[in-house]
Amino acid sequence: MEYKMAQAQIEELVKKAQEHETQTKALLTRLELQMPTLPKSIALPKDEPAVALKAFVVEYISHVPSFIGAVGFAAGEAGIDPYVAPFLEVATDFLLSPKGDTGNPVGYLELMEQAYLAHRLIEEVNDQYIVHAGMPLIPMDVTKANIIIHHLLGETLANSLDDVVEETARQMTSKDIVYSSEKFKKYVEIRRGKGWDQVWRQWSDMTRFLEVDLSLKKEES
Asked: In the chain, N or C terminus with fewer CB closer than 10 Å?
């Protein structure tokens, strides 16, 4: 499948973005300018908050291939790969198609937009699974990370990207029949048993938020 062969391409894209950032500091400069306007719900360290936020963004981008691999693995185990694979291929295409068509080098700022699209689409897959199985397909909640990136992108751009994700998901949710298969039902029962979390240890590092976190409590006025 296309998404299974794209990891090396994505890693090369991230490597080039790192080289671009080393030369230009474009992402760090952008984040420093955004510091005064970020909501109080985003918790940052007192020392060099923009540097911590940059590390968070880089990790967010770099983890897309691993998240795609985790979802693909779980979908294969559940027997719902025919449904999930198209989502993962689109998520992969999102990251491999940054707005770098002008001949200029692609940096982290461009990849942040594409990574947001990919992560949000994976979130949609997980949400659909919860509807059918009553539990997440993967035990990794990227909601906080997506909300933080949403703030960094800005409401106008982030909302337009959300619209793209929702429309894409809407066009790809006509295969609910896979959820009625015996293999899927058996998989759900296994998931309900003890010890399943052991399978996910290889991806546990992706749940880190470094020195950046988000409070979902209502802010006091």
From this structure: C
Q: Residue 213: helix, strand or coil by DSSP? A: strand
| Torsion, Cα of 137, 143, 146, 152 (10° steps) | -170
Single out the residue of 136, 162, 148, 155 nearest to residue 59, CA to CA. 148
The pLDDT, as a whole number, for residue 66 is 80
* Gap between the Cα atoms of 21 and 14, Å rounded: 10
For position 99, what pLDDT does the model report?
62
pTM here is 0.81
Please state, in angstroms and rounded to a whole number, the distance separating the CA atoms of residues 99 and 122.
Answer: 21
Find out whether 161 and 120 touch, Cβ atoms under 8 Å. yes
pLDDT at 166: 85
Q: Show me where the domains of the chain are located.
A: 2-214
> For 140-201, what is the HEC assignment?
CCCHHHHHHHHHHHCHHHHHHHHHHHHHHHHHCCCCHHHHHCHHHHHHHHHHHCCCHHHHHH
Residue corresponding to tokens 């949000």: 120
Task: Classify residue 220 by burial, with Cβ atoms within 10 Å: 0-12, 13-18, 19+.
Answer: exposed
